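Session log. Operator J.P. requested a structure for one protein chain; no other inputs attached. Running the standard single-chain path with token output.
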Amino acid sequence: MTKNKLERLKFSDISESSPYIIKNFIASNNQRDKLDISFDYPFSIDAIVFIICLKGRGKVKINFKEYIVEENSISIILPNQIVEKIDHCENHVVEVLCCSIDFLSDLPFPNNFELPRRIAENPILKVTPEEIQHLLRYHSFIIETFNGKQNQFQEKIIKGLLFSLLMEIGTIYLEQEGDIAPCEKMSSRNKEIVQQFMTLLKEHFKIGRTASFYADKMFISPKYLSAVLKKETGRAINSWIEQAAIMGAKMMLKSTNLTVLQISEELNFPNPSYFGRFFKKSTGMTPKYYREKV
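Structure written below.
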């Protein structure tokens, strides 16, 4: 798989090139070859990626929201989320697990577990050094089992270990939710509005360029939507919309052979000149330079 062709990865794209795979599961540690996933360009993948940060610091955007990834943090990327690395230090060290939805489909999660919702709301979780070491023991045991002697129960054993790891992560989410002061929690209605807007933005960023476009789909006024987003995210709605368009442009510039004209039309810009100015204002470079040099 070519490193600069990463718009929408399929789990099979990675698994075919990975030196260690059990059907719908891939594992990686720092002593082995890296998985063929690059964070250098925006991408999405039809799998779940678990990342444990052991050292260093960086910034990443997940579904257009910016997060800090640092030592003693865990990151979980859900299927089809749009991910973009903003920056990172040279000594960034992580451990990775990656699996398809199918690999987790038959695990007996509690009915009230709601881990996907919690991850979607907060994909980067800062934890204590003790919690990191506890999670790393699961990770190490999974790696050892994965790289050990193959047997007929190996996949079931790894599924059991992964299930235990996910339950531990779910417990951390629950404990941290309990530590949030009531005044810091987003109201349920505002949370619903923010989540609905983010979902719509991901679906319609190619054509939706105004607050009215999204407000109409949510049956609320543009003024109310703008006020909620500003209050709860600290950013104006136009900032979210413009950022989504830029991320979409980067994905297409790096993952397709479409011309700049075709991309500007795909993203509903009036002409390529306007698109070029818009892109340069946000990134400091022209679309052509980004495609060829970055």
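Operator note: The chain has a mean pLDDT of 82.
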